[in-house]
Automatic annotation (TrEMBL):
SUPFAM superfamilies: S-adenosyl-L-methionine-dependent methyltransferases (SSF53335). Keywords: Cytoplasm, Methyltransferase, rRNA processing, S-adenosyl-L-methionine, Transferase. Its EC number is 2.1.1.170. This is Ribosomal RNA small subunit methyltransferase G. It comes from Brevundimonas intermedia. One of its GO terms (molecular function) is rRNA (guanine-N7-)-methyltransferase activity.
Length: 191
């Protein structure tokens, strides 16, 4: 709890000078950000290694790293393409001594191998699956935090991708969904 509170304070301070999260969401930090992120652990309790694509303000990746701190083999890769966000994430990782590595770069260009690839508020599912495809090729499964458009995003994604999907209700927001993706491969285009 102390690490989560320290994260909350640092996020609030950093958010004053750069837009990491909507300022109106900070008062609901515990439910909207922490619990929303933490619930992923219930969907993959055995997973030890995670890659958070478009890690941004650290949701879900920093929360997962905090909660898995001290767990043998636990590690989270926080991947983002913007340097200022990565500097913020690195400050958090260093200050809280988290089992995490910050990587600046495009998610789809990284060589990370993990159990779970995740993302929150990065892109529509069709595009997100393109970013995540290399992780699936190396054996990962996907756990993505999505909003009320999750079902329609999956329908659209099936035009470009073949995959198995499960939707579970979010415990932090009745409109949210947790989307589990397995067996991802690109759909063949018709000629």
């Amino acid at each position: 709890m102390a690490d989560l509170e320290a994260f909350r304070i640092r996020l609030g301070d950093a958010n004053l000078v750069m837009n990491l999260v909507g300022p109106d969401s900070l008062p609901d930090f515990w439910n909207r950000h922490v619990w929303d992120s933490a619930q992923l652990l219930n969907h993959a309790p055995e997973a030890r290694t995670w890659a958070d694509l478009g890690a941004g303000a650290g949701f879900p990746g920093v929360v997962l790293a905090i909660l898995m701190k001290g767990r043998e083999g636990a590690h989270v890769w926080l991947i983002d393409s913007l340097g200022k966000r990565c500097r913020f994430l690195q400050e958090i990782v260093d200050a809280l001594d988290l089992p995490a590595t910050v990587i600046i770069g495009r998610a789809e260009e990284q060589e990370v191998t993990c159990d779970i690839v995740t993302a929150r508020a990065v892109a529509p599912m069709e595009k997100l699956l393109g970013y995540a495809q290399p992780y699936f090729q190396r054996g990962a499964q996907g756990l993505f935090l999505k909003g009320e458009r999750a079902e329609s995003e999956l329908i659209e994604a099936r035009k470009s991708w073949h995959f198995e999907a499960e939707l579970a209700p979010s415990q932090s927001d009745v409109r949210g969904r947790i989307v589990t993706i397995r067996s991802l491969r690109r759909a063949r285009t018709k000629r």
